[in-house]
Amino acid sequence: MFDSPILVVGSTGKIGRRVARRLRDGGLSVRAGSRRSDPPFDWENPSTWAPALRGVDSAYVSYYPDLAVPEAPAAIRRFTEVALQEGVRKLVLLSGRGESNARRSEDIVRDSGLDFTLVRASWFNQNFDEGQLLEPVLNGVVAMPAAMVREPFVDADDVAEVAVAALTDARHNGQLYEVTGPRLMTFADAVAEIAAASGHKVEYAPISLEAFRAGMTEAAGPELANLLTELCREVFDGRNESVADGVQRALGRAPRDFSDFSRAAAAAGAWQRAA
User: Do the Cβ atoms of 20 and 6 come closer than 8 Å?
Assistant: First the structure.
């Protein structure tokens, strides 16, 4: 059925590596798309795009650093043009819920002439054990500029499973799947569940955007700090305080609950400091 490899752009990322693994486990050929892959793929170097896309029928696309940044729509437009030139037939775009530039990028893919599926995701559960929030959890205080805004945290494995279904089944062509978890939670709720599952004292501290920017600048540098601060400014205004049915529509089952994630992560030692 699949004679050519499937390109996974962002193959080392939180979702991309799960997509690549699921495709390989299903016996499909995967072409990794990262700066260290062969051929390499680098969003900042458009000359790498055509070689990575050559001979590929479909591609999973995750934009780096995030579709929220102002330059993302122009890059996605150019990428779709190169994909068409190289004979690619389908793109599965990972998008972000509540992000205006992500919506613009979705529209570009939708109007590109390619078959497509859009996977619009809420905040990942795994941000707490694989991403920027791991160290704060280990330190006992998760400080975020989210006040008591509620978020339907979604599991990265659910997002990856939806993306793989879209890549491997034409019935998903033309679909927008807004993928969330099954319930709304504040960051305080999420942190409390992590504390209960891990047996460690962890607290949530709501802070201002500028305090968040200052802390992130010290921890990760000004570029990432500015990106995350502006992303938080945009999405933590209550716009995402609703549960969507993308997982159910795409997979025919309920999404994974945050409690299941936190118990499994704790059992795997995610929140234990290395000796």
Answer: no
- Residue 185, CB-side half-sphere exposure with 13 Å CA sphere: 23
Report strand pairing: 150-151 vs 185-186: antiparallel
Distance, first Cα to last Cα, the chain:
48
pLDDT digits (tens, 9 = 90+) for 135-181: 999 999 999 999 999 999 999 999 999 999 999 999 999 999 999 99
Query: Would you state the structure tokens that stand for residue 7, as one six-digit string?
Result: 């390109």
Exposed / middle / buried, residue 2 (Cβ in 10 Å: 0-12, 13-18, 19+):
middle
d(CA 236, CA 212): 13
Q: Residues for the chain: how many in total?
A: 275
Q: Give me 162's structure tokens.
A: 């939806």
Segments in the chain forming alpha helices (H): 16-25, 49-53, 72-85, 100-110, 134-139, 156-168, 187-198, 209-220, 222-235, 246-251, 258-267
270 secondary structure, DSSP code: T
Class (C level, CATH) for 6-122+155-179+242-255: alpha beta
Q: Are 177 and 250 in contact (CB under 8 A)?
A: yes
